[in-house]
């Protein structure tokens, strides 16, 4: 942060030096007149201003934000072990919204499930290997995420690839996953 401040200060000083060299002068600002009704120093619609400031300005930035949210959810959903199953579940909840979040609330890993995972030494590891360009509108997105996955139990491991479809909705706090489907490998990508 201090590097950015130093760069900004340097730019201001060099601009002032260039203007002075060209003969520019600085005059004091006129004294403001006293307004009988003082105005607030912030915009009247502050929440709307903050909301638009958080949203990416370009289509590419919107697509990247939606893709990042989908990949984060995919990794939360597909990376777990007996030790991390509940943390992965909580992470999924934090990234979800709507019906998907309500479904997740009803499927919390139980003690018996975690104990079974420990007994089986079960784990799953996923790595994203591809995300084609998503379909994005102003408030919804569809992102396809291809994962290379490795599932292990009792020392045996199986590796495979999955294609997953994430449906996202834009909320004031960012993109949230509202639908998640593991696609059959024979279904063509959209």
Our count of helices gives 6
Assign the CATH superfamily of the domain at 56-183. Answer: VirB8 protein
| CATH fold-level assignment of the domain at 56-183 | Nuclear Transport Factor 2, Chain: A
Overall morphology:
globular
CATH domain class of the domain at 56-183: Alpha Beta
Write a structural description.
The protein is of the alpha+beta class and 190 residues long. It has helices at 2-21, 46-54, 59-78, 85-95, 98-106, 111-120, and strands at residues 80-81, 123-130, 135-136, 140-153, 156-171, 174-183. A hairpin with a 2-residue loop joins strand 5 and strand 6. It starts with a helix and ends in a 7-residue tail after the last strand.
Task: Name a few traits of the molecule.
six-stranded antiparallel β-sheet, alpha+beta, 190 residues, Nuclear Transport Factor 2, Chain: A, 42% helix, 6 helices
């Amino acid at each position: 942060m201090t590097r950015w401040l130093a760069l900004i200060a340097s730019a201001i000083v060099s601009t002032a030096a260039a203007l002075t060299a060209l003969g520019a002068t600085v005059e004091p600002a006129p004294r403001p007149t006293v307004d009988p009704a003082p105005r607030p120093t912030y915009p009247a619609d502050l929440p709307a201003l903050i909301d638009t400031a958080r949203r990416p300005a370009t289509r590419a930035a919107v697509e990247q934000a939606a893709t990042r949210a989908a990949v984060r959810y995919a990794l939360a959903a597909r990376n777990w072990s007996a030790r991390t199953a509940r943390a992965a579940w909580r992470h999924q909840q934090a990234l979800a919204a709507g019906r998907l979040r309500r479904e997740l609330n009803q499927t919390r890993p139980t003690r018996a499930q975690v104990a079974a995972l420990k007994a089986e030494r079960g784990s799953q590891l996923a790595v994203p290997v591809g995300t084609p360009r998503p379909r994005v509108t102003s408030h919804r997105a569809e992102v396809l995420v291809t994962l290379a996955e490795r599932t292990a139990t009792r020392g045996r491991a199986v590796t495979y690839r999955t294609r997953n479809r994430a449906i996202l909705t834009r909320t004031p706090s960012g993109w949230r996953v509202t639908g998640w489907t593991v696609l059959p490998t024979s279904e063509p990508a959209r």
